[in-house]
Amino acid sequence: MWDAIVNVLFQILRLIQSFATDWGLSIIILTIIVRLILTPLVLKSTKSTARMQVLQPKLMEIQQRYADDPQRQAEEMQKFYSENKFSPLGGCLPLLIQMPILIALFTLLRDLPKYFEGTSFSFYGILPDLTVTPGAMWVEGIGVALPYLISLLLFALLTIIPTLYQSRNQTGQQASSMRTMSIVMSIMMLWMGWNLPAGVLLYYDVSTMWQVIQQVFVTRRVMEKAKAEEEERLANAPIEVDVVRRERKARPHKKN
Fold first, then answer.
1. Model pTM?
2. Residue 72 sits in which domain range?
């Protein structure tokens, strides 16, 4: 199955290269195609996340009410999920489905020379060789390595922008934690990207740009609409009263 996904992406990239003629442009077009294919999954995940945010107070209430009875707590939460037609894995499943495609694309771009032997991989002369890493080009001198270093910096910065964008809606300790996580993540991206082929960095740069634009202009609106619809549905739902009946104690009989 894995090889089949890589082979499909290889055939698509070869078709794109037949008319794009530039490998960098071909990678950009392939990245956009993959992102368009994955967009429905991303939007589905966004809606599920929005519903989860609305339902979270109810779930916490159930957890607190039955904190001393784990079995009853699990039953009530399952009942709540069923009544609201909600799956707690709904936000994760679309992301898990798209991961094999993204990793297969990474494998293809990393091994370009193996799939396209005897080819020169250039991006309009800006990146003369998409198969080499920033670390390898650094040895050639700062002037030669500069375009690769810029690609590496974009890789680090664009990766943390979505996290920073989400932190705008957070306050206090949570916002501080997200900012700290962003700094740590950017350092990790620089370390990882140092030994990644420029073609892979180009893919991630374009892919993350797409994600940021989608998050600002599409995902945010989808989430707000989904949250509003879920809040309206809960407001119009019939109120359930949890009645706990007490057992009636038998009256003592009068002694004769």
1. 0.76
2. 2-120+222-235
